Amino acid sequence: MNPPRPQAALDALHPTPSAGFDEPFEMLNACHERVERTLQLLQRLAEHLPAHGADAAARQAARDVMRYFDIAGPAHHEDEERHLFSALRVSGDAAMQATVARLQAEHREMASGWAALRQQLARIAEAGDSTAPQWQAFAALYRAHMQAEETIAYPAARQLLDRAAQAAMGQEMAQRRGVR
User: How far is residue 111 from each of residues 74, 114, 116, 172, measured CA to CA in Å?
Assistant: First the structure.
């Protein structure tokens, strides 16, 4: 891991998505890409700690991961809960309703897993703890969850939500984030 360059590290972790809020499904997919990059950063951090300890780069990486999953992760899940899952629940499709129930349960499981993982990362970032975080189960759950959303939930919701509903979805997502 290279020494931290705060703004460069932040830009690499949180680049401006290629899609805007006027294309909410593309924005949701861009969020998944950022989740994957953040999970990869978490893996690199875990590999870095045994050899280099909680040096400045490790501490910055831990802070970057915490920032992403503290802010962007919950906002993304709220987007899905408010807009996609609500539309899919009322679709009348029993299999889709079961999928939504599973995805919602996974959101709760990810939140719980994040709370435990965050404590480990905070010890690295704030106290210089060199113990590698237990990240594998969290990452595996997140990756399987994103796969189900991208292959099942997003396509089904896209069919249910007409252009006007998608525009309203994007506007609400932007407003909740304070974007004009």
Answer: 8, 5, 9, 23
Set out the domains of the chain in order of their start, with CATH numbers: 21-176 (1.20.120.520)
Residues 35 and 73 sit within 8 Å (Cβ to Cβ): yes
Per residue in 89-119, pLDDT tens? 998 899 999 999 999 999 999 999 999 999 9
Is residue 159 within 8 A of residue 96, CB to CB? The reply is no
CA-wise closest residue to 154 among 56, 84, 104, 57 = 84
Q: What are the DSSP calls for the chain, one per residue?
A: -PPP-HHHHHHHHSPPPSS-TTSHHHHHHHHHHHHHHHHHHHHHHHHHHHHH-S-HHHHHHHHHHHHIIIIIHHHHHHHIIIIIIHHHHTT--HHHHHHHHHHHHHHHHHHHHHHHHHHHHHHHHHH---PPP--HHHHHHHHHHHHHIIIIIHHHHHHHS-HHHHHHHHHHHHHHTT--
Residues 133-152 have pLDDT tens digits of: 999 999 999 999 999 999 99
Q: What's the predicted TM-score (pTM) here?
A: 0.87
Q: How far is Cα of residue 60 from the mean position of the Cα atoms in its chain?
A: 18
- pLDDT of residue 17 exceeding 70, the answer is no
Q: How far apart are CA 62 and CA 57, in angstroms?
A: 9
